[in-house]
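Example 3.
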Amino acid sequence: MLLHVLNRAPTTSRVYQQALAMMGEEDRLLLVEDGVQGALPQMVRHFSEVHGRLFALREDLASRGLLGRCDASVQVVDVDGFVHLTEQAERTVSWY
Amino acid sequence: MRYAILLLGAPYSHQASHSALRFAHALIARGHALQAVFFYHDGVHNAARLAAPPQDERHLTDEWIALHAEHGTSLEVCIAAALRRGLVDEREAVRHGKSGHSLEAPFELTGLGQLIDLGQRCDRLITFAP
């Protein structure tokens, strides 16, 4: 299982499509930095194929005033949870 | 586990340096070892010896140095990316006829082979990009 980390919002970059195309069935996707915008209810449809495997970084949501505004399907983790995800994953791939 | 960080983003331009520092402290707090940070592309600017941000702002270069002092993390800077951006240590300054140097220990100029080595030697390599 690989952890994919995405720091771009779907509205500003299409790199999320490349990330999704490369993801295996068990892989997880963590949204960080401006990427956390993808966790909002109006954006999360872009990530429907990784339903249940989509995470967003709490600190980056908070710094953008988006904490508590995520879609219910997104799992919010703090930076400690980010490290935990990298422990569980064989490798980590960053998309930017 | 043994971790390494690859940092590609310039300080104060992108969030990458802040994200990487936050991740570095979190992994150490969880009991892991951060073997090295490899600074590449515009990330080499994190090593600028002459950086002097306002006092009420975070001093990213000093924070990397503190990480080295407290946890023994090596701070490796890609020499090819550094030299073309004006980041030279004393030895390279002399070699290129420059009147001053802009990079000093604990940052060390090194080659890409070192990054490959880190990828093989460490259990996890995490990239922070602009």
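Chain B has a mean pLDDT of 98. The longest helix of chain B spans residues 16-29.
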